[in-house]
């Protein structure tokens, strides 16, 4: 066991320790430059998704908005509350600036990986779609790379469906016990039953649940943060000044100066928005849209919501309060955020934050499950295998909830996520020319006066595209981008 733990520790060091973050940053900058700052060009179009409906007229289809909410529900979580607090504690206020910076370049990376997932998606017998990096590898690079897709799938199942879901179950049960005095076993039972009901309903039920949960949790948290910002509006310019000055080492809040701010901001930003890590494309592929780039734009917006909006809210709550002391590490993580809220608005906010954390964790559980299911279908689509995964995930959620130290067993989660991220980055780099062709097609239609571009598979006869996934897109139908 010690050898296995050491082995995964080495894998974690080789991926997250020195290779992944520089690659993600460099690739994000490269994609941004190569696509002509695509995330800025299409920024206004991103907001159309908020009022969109499905584009085929099929009431059972997954709309771009529903896919966005599922991915936001998965991205938004403890990293937006505890992760931001850790970044500020270890990197100073300047870490927030670098979180913003990595989100801006990550928006371009996310657009590319999610557009590829849409391009190579496959229509299922029930009318829904499946796709993601594994299928992009198989259909984009060829069957000879299927081993790489299988490696990706195994890592995704282990990291998200099993490891991270144990962590989320532990988060929910721990928060309920600490704030509400509810026994972990009861929290585990309730969470397992509700999660089971949703995951056994497939992607349609997952999307419907996200359509309810995600707006509630995001809007509630944003409203509270806006109230705090308005109450301290005169202090806001000083906070923004401190963020910028610390980011470039002109003022030093912690040891390490600009280096600490840069390292913490990039690391926490990437963990939070997951751009380039290969998780969100699995959900992006489920949406029924006219053109792959349309959903890429939508998923780019998800990165913006996660980091630029929600992470910033947490940062302002902390930096506008009097709990945070530069250089002090006695209080960090969710406790720092919680105590900052209390200092602004009173004791009731700690219970409110517990409620928000419960919603964040729950939305992440159903998101993580779907990632695992989608990955599993690359290996086997037999209903018994899929149902077995659902039962395993329910058991993992319960185990994580009832055993306070259970998540320590899942030490393999981060290293496995590191491997799948490297596989995804290899696929992105190899398929980037294909994505640029699709992006060129999208832009040419816009320049020709087409408000809502449509993918014509016949324009790309050399690509292994599922033609049935791109039929029936009538120009008068609803669209988002």
From TrEMBL:
Phosphoprotein is among the record's keywords: no
Mode of membrane association: Multi-pass membrane protein
Residue spans crossing the bilayer: 20-43, 64-91, 97-120, 145-165, 185-203, 212-233, 239-263, 300-320, 351-370, 391-412, 418-439
Keyword check for Transport: yes
UniProt-listed Pfam families: Na_Ala_symp (PF01235)
Location in or out of the cell: Cell inner membrane; Cell membrane
Protein origin, superkingdom: Bacteria
Keywords in alphabetical order: Cell inner membrane, Cell membrane, Membrane, Symport, Transmembrane, Transmembrane helix, Transport
Family: Belongs to the alanine or glycine:cation symporter (AGCS) (TC 2.A.25) family.
Protein's name according to its UniProt entry: Alanine/glycine:cation symporter family protein
Organism: Nitratireductor kimnyeongensis
